[in-house]
């Protein structure tokens, strides 16, 4: 084994494994993460290696990282949205939504349930993405910033964060997007 | 064949009720086709884009009950974009304009707008039954229209729909004159309901047999409802949270004991597990128990409840029951035919509480088991082989290992042999879902042995095109094939394009098929719609035939390309 390590055979070994199962995630990507529908750009060169990848069953595959593969495990969205997993009696699970920011290389996820209201949410977003949202007013939206927090609601429409009561927002928000610059014009930005 | 007058043949055909049989009857000769089509009352359309409403109406003027399915199955798992299609409005519109006296509409995975529900409610005087499963696009306003306008409504059954709840008064819209309800299921609604209206509705519905409440119905209302409807056969409890020393709880105990007909129990959407003893009196009669939305019920309380359910035939449960709990099921539920174990925490792959051990126990204790959906942490070949031996009667076998390419943890081998044993032993297997580490070998077995297989779901499996070819060549009765993240390419796709005309549909996503391959299928088979779903709009800019297609959905159709596809769906 030591001999193999010196030759760095591990680094060039082609195998089918999910990310997290070894350090060389680039070589070991399965079609799953290559085709994932998120906005990340994935290395193209690994695609060809998968058709001929040999299986190395001796190496233990690590369990999938949380929520990495779209549509797996195959559970109906309704069930996912409505099941509150038991943590302890009385505790309710979080509402995790994706947060994207225009220009950022990858998305984040936040739990809406940990915030009591809009001020806390905005503060957390500002810290996460290093921007300032400006002052919210019902009439003019977010003043004083080129970044505007928006969200996609259940109907698929993009809405300004802050217009509806907090609980209604957490129930209908599917994902967040921090819009920037010219796209945000018309949403109450300077 | 003209020995009997038409009326006699029609009378004989009345006894033939299954869709498959009636379809066969219609193919015998022209005269049988004619008699059959005039007498047909129930039609099932598995893919709403395979035929048009106009042709349906033309062929079956006596239509009373229509079942329609819209989006492909993988839409359940967010693999199909939101507005892909499956709109019911054109169907209701066409039926409304015709003379069809529609009485029943059953929809699955379709987009249902409030406008459609309103049109439906106003267009068919004798409309009796609406069943919506996994649908979306409507609000409680649409339900209000149904309640208000369908004077003879017997059934309103909403299963796992995404409904925009306007917290309105839809329940109050049932007029005082409405006394015909047999089945009311609104468990999937999230909002408040008018409890007084609900109590009055139940009071004036002497035929009510099935009642499934939502989370907003509290325990003391439940108790009142049960007092008014002791004839219930199917009960879905909304909220089951209360103080065990309260008056309401005592009244509930009395009310439940009067309900001697309850055979099916579900819900417990909010549950205080220390109060389950009130339920025990009805457990002995239950044939269906669905606790899959009740994560608060686990451990000893859950096991004690199950121990009372000796006649159970179908059990839907969460994996927090654990292998030990499944052992209790195995000892108690000797009549069990269907078991579904759902994950209580889907993304924490390391915490799933059931393994191959629980499944083996159930297979040993419940020889009548014929339908399985099992989400688990791991599976071994040895376990599957044992299960196959214990239960040769499987019709549906769906296994989901939370880590989709996990090998047998004991031997580190793929699970080919285990699934092979299942298909070899279960000669009546109609539906199979695979997971775990799998090579081409498992597909060789499936092609060889799964002669009755109608639906197959594959994910993250196989080594080469051979896998798909074994299945396409071997499974003569295959109707639906759905594949994701497998190395199947054009060679497999194009080997026998005629086969797809014998199937309802084929889904392939994140595989190796190219645009050129899909075009070739479309060109050779004009009776198929070949859809490319591409949200990233890559297809627009790069029309290279060698480009891999992210999502392809093809299905046979008699009516050509659909006109309602969104921009990102390209029909070749």
TrEMBL record, chain A:
Domain of life: Eukaryota
Keyword Transcription in annotation: yes
Ranges for region Disordered: 1-66
A Pfam family hit: AUX_IAA
InterPro entries membership: AUX/IAA_dom, AUX_IAA, PB1-like
TM region positions: none
Compositional bias of kind Polar residues: 27-36, 46-56
Compartment annotation: Nucleus
Keywords: Auxin signaling pathway, Nucleus, Repressor, Transcription, Transcription regulation
Keyword Cytoplasm: no
Domain PB1: 94-181
Family to which the UniProt record says this protein belongs: Belongs to the Aux/IAA family.
SUBUNIT field: Homodimers and heterodimers.
Protein's job: Aux/IAA proteins are short-lived transcriptional factors that function as repressors of early auxin response genes at low auxin concentrations.
Protein name per the record: Auxin-responsive protein
TrEMBL record, chain B:
Pathway noted in the entry: Protein modification; protein ubiquitination
InterPro entries: COI1_F-box (IPR041567), F-box_dom (IPR001810), Leu-rich_rpt (IPR001611), Leu-rich_rpt_Cys-con_subtyp (IPR006553), LRR_dom_sf (IPR032675), Transp_inhibit (IPR041101)
Classification via SMART domains: FBOX (SM00256), LRR_CC (SM00367)
Gene Ontology molecular function: any one: auxin binding
Principal location class: nucleus
Domain of life of the organism encoding this protein: Eukaryota
Subcellular location: Nucleus
Key word Nucleus present: yes
Pfam families, A to Z: F-box_5, LRR_6, Transp_inhibit
GO CC terms, sorted: nucleus; SCF ubiquitin ligase complex
PANTHER family for this protein: F-BOX/TPR REPEAT PROTEIN POF3, PROTEIN AUXIN SIGNALING F-BOX 3
Name of the featured protein: Auxin signaling f-box 2-like protein
Gene source species: Gossypium arboreum
